[in-house]
Description:
The chain is mainly beta. The chain has a single domain (5-144), classed as Immunoglobulin-like (Sandwich), CATH 2.60.40. The protein is built from one helix and nine strands; from the N terminus they run ββββαβββββ. It has one helix at 52-60; strands spanning 5-12, 17-26, 36-44, 48-49, 65-68, 85-93, 100-109, 129-135, 141-146. Strands 1, 2, 3, 4, 5, 6, 7, 8 and 9 form a nine-stranded antiparallel β-sheet that branches. The radius of gyration is 17 Å and the shape is elongated. The mean pLDDT is 84.
Amino acid sequence: MCSEIILRQEVLKDGFHRDLLIKVKFGESIEDLQTCRLLIKQDIPAGLFVDPYELASLRERNITEAVMVSENFDIEAPNYLSKESEVLIYARQDSQCVDCFQAFLPVHYRYHRPHSHDGETSIVVNHPDLLMFCDQGEGCRCFLRVRKE
């Protein structure tokens, strides 16, 4: 029996440099989340980019555990010359919620082609894939994979 999983994504800050906050709340079927690790696979649309050098700096300072999966992309390229990229993020347990994990990812807007409309462009950040590993002790391990549909 699967428990309910609540996924919430929130974009923080204004302007070209923002933060993506991902929160995951699990229902009651996983007894001890203290033994679990949650890996988030987040696709980054072409209109955004994640700076791999910034991620390395955040890892060194123990702020976030994230790594770029995509290679050979240009962080300076505009939206129309870019491709989607992919980031893996280890979420941390939320100290204020016993059934919750959260992850933080800095994202940056790419330049877009000029247009004569209202001057605004929408970028859709899809839900991530969630991969969870729980070590329940005595050789019992639990895996959970939630894919977007």
